[in-house]
Amino acid sequence: MADPGHDNDFPDPSSFDDESSVISTRGLEAFGRKVTTTASHLMATRTDPGSNPHYQNAMSEVHRQLRRPALQRGMFSMTRTTPTDMVRSRLSTKEIQSRALSYVPDEMLQNIPDADSSYSLFQGFQASFPDFTDEGKKHRRRVSRGRKLIDERPTTPDGSPESVQKLKKEKASMMHQLEMLGIRKNMASSEIREVDARIENLAGMRRIVLDRLANLEQDEAILEHDIVDVEERLEEAQELAAEVESVALRTPTKTDEDAASERGDAPGFMSESIYEKLPSANSTPSKRKPRNVRRKSMPILHEHFEPGTMIRSMRAHHDSITALDFDAPFGLMVSAAMDDSVRVWDLNAGRCIGVLEGHTASVRTLQVTDNILATGSMDATIRLWDLSRAHYDPQGSHFGKEEDDEDAIAFGNPDDPPVDPPAGSMSDCPLFTLQAHLDEITALHFRDNVLVSGSADKTLRQWDLEKGRCVQTLDVMWAAAQASALSTSDDTWRQTARAPDMSADFVGALQVFESALACGTADGMVRLWDLRSGQVHRSLVGHTGPVTCLQFDDVHLVTGSLDRSIRIWDLRTGSIYDAYAYEHPITSMMFDARRIVCAAGEDVVKVYDKVEGRHWDCGAGIAEADEGKGPAVVERVRMRDGYMVEGRRDGIVGVWTC
Amino acid sequence: MTQLPYAIDAETALNPAELAVLRAQYEKEGDMVGVQTKFNYAWGLVKSNTRHEQHLGVMLLSEIFRTSPERRRECLYYLALGNYKLGNYGDARKYNDLLLDKEPGNLQATNLRALVDDKVAKEGLMGVAIVSGVAVVAGIVGGVLLRNFGRKR
Prior knowledge:
The complex is a heterodimer of chains A (658) and B (153).
Chain A: H1 4-7, H2 13-22, H3 26-44, H4 53-67, H5 70-76, H6 83-91, H7 93-101, H8 106-110, H9 121-133, H10 136-155, H11 161-249, H12 256-260, H13 272-277, H14 284-296, E1 310-315, E2 321-326, E3 332-337, E4 342-346, E5 351-356, E6 363-369, E7 372-377, E8 381-386, H15 400-404, H16 406-410, E9 430-435, E10 441-447, E11 450-455, E12 459-464, E13 469-475, H17 476-486, H18 490-496, E14 507-513, E15 516-521, E16 526-530, E17 535-540, E18 547-552, E19 556-561, E20 565-570, E21 576-581, E22 588-591, E23 595-599, E24 605-609, E25 614-618, H19 620-624, E26 634-640, E27 643-648, E28 652-657
Antiparallel strand pairs in A: 1-28, 2-3, 3-4, 4-5, 6-7, 7-8, 8-9, 10-11, 11-12, 12-13, 14-15, 15-16, 16-17, 18-19, 19-20, 20-21, 22-23, 23-24, 24-25, 26-27, 27-28
Chain B: H1 7-11, H2 16-29, H3 35-47, H4 51-67, H5 72-86, H6 89-102, H7 107-152
Helix pairs in contact in B: 2-3, 3-4, 4-5, 5-6, 6-7
Membrane topology (chain A): Peripheral membrane protein
Main location (chain A): mitochondrion
WD repeats (chain A): 314-355, 356-388, 434-473, 517-539, 540-579
């Protein structure tokens, strides 16, 4: 028959009739009738009104239009909504409010992307809805499984139409369940994608905030430095004013020195020699105060870095680092190396502040606390320094060379030669020298005014920093003999104690806290002393090699030894609390509330996370392993509040978070 | 299985316990609420019979519309349905027509359009009846008053 396009050419028979009736001419009418009849004859064979969609559509359209009263159509074809709606949307405040809340801007209505998700939210609702009311998926599955097992037996044998019906029904319901499960699967996976996107988003936000924090900290540091400056000037001005006043009040015979000194009559109580060694009373507090202001704003940036991130790497020395310490994260660091130099660093800028000169041999041990530095050297002397008296501007205005490229310095190439600080920047720092030991100083520790040093002459000395002199000398061998004599089981003690290893330091490490002193020695013993009696009150036996490092807090004592092990002791009972070992001898160790870090003869620092119970490596060895150049072995490590500094055999110092 | 619910589906309210479960889930997820959870709660609210809850449901739906572009198309339908239930036929028609522009063959949307048309026609007629009734009454009263005035004079 004709193609479908053809019968579109013919108008509807009914409408054709209508049209022809309008024409009045008789002849035309007859002709029209003829055409109509032939057309309807031609079409009747196939244009069954029931099967022709066009016809049906047209008719239903006409029908719908006819069904509606003409008046109503006329009234409401223009309106889009009902009067009640209109009244509501204009008069009721509550309605207006809620409409405003659920208002969708037009540009959003224009911007509707194609739906690409495999299920609609409604399907998701349907799929998850049984979960809310039933007791979960598992329960439902068990029920359906059970039902299947019960039904299976009676339905399989007979082939009656009911059983077929039943099976069909069951199949349909199972298919439905399968579909549901598919949707739920899709839901779960799209939810995961959503969460991933959100995590990414949050990570981006974190980066931005971290940058902001870094900037704030930088600003803070600069401002603090300015505050220090202003305070200094204020003090000077006040002093000057006081001087002028006192000059005006007192008789002109008084000298300036006496007026400036806050405790003008103090020298009378002391001998001249000791007085000279003391830090001058009026300058120390004035310098220390601003530093204390600085402490109040603790840098926290490093806590937000990913553990194991490198903050900075500096070529500090040309030879192996022998000792290293810093006072606070982003604070001051002091490093000593085999090249006999001692350098002071600003960790914030990564810049050398100055070189401390005085020791005639290389420094083996040092400690920085509150701007006070103690160094113990192979020349058998201990020197104390006040680092707050250094002439240093954190903003680097007096190093002309660095000003230009501060970033290049801050994140500088570790292979760059150390920038030489101006000579004499540290000339005011030396406080005094403690001389009494007969051999090199291998360990020292101070707290408040008590300093204890250990030397290769097999003695420990306790110093009073107020007076600057030796308070008592503890002979380790004698005390050990005493302790063994007092001990009831001296035979077993003798057996476990090794002969001192001559290559290792006799006193490997020590720490003092008020009258308590712990020291680790080359025979592998850790001794706990009471400084009031000068006696060993407990010996911790366990290490089979020289003890090289030691630290205690209120509960635990942690020791590291050349026997490759770290031991954690319970301070109250003296028993082993925990122990673990690495592949090489431990040369340095430090712990805080969360982790124990140690240098164990590798190019990385070994970190033990106490909270997570996890061992991991931190340091240059990980990143540079791929590049094929092995960094040098880490010799010394210090860590405070997750801010770690490590010194290597090639003189490079790395700063990390952990 | 249909992609979108028919208008009938929105007429059957959930029981309070079910709605409470949906609400609890929505509140548990807090600020980081997922689209599906939000929709579940919103749909439960739209199905409700109290006008206040329906409002809240439509508000949540519009939030989904604003925040997740990939769901906008289907959200048009939900919004249309929600507004239809609220009796905001203007908005309902706006959303529904937008959806029908994009998907002319959408059965649910076609169905909804017919429903909206019917409702508008019916309520409109009623409105006309009321207005004309009032007018007639006013006319009668006015006429009576005028007559009274006339008599007094």
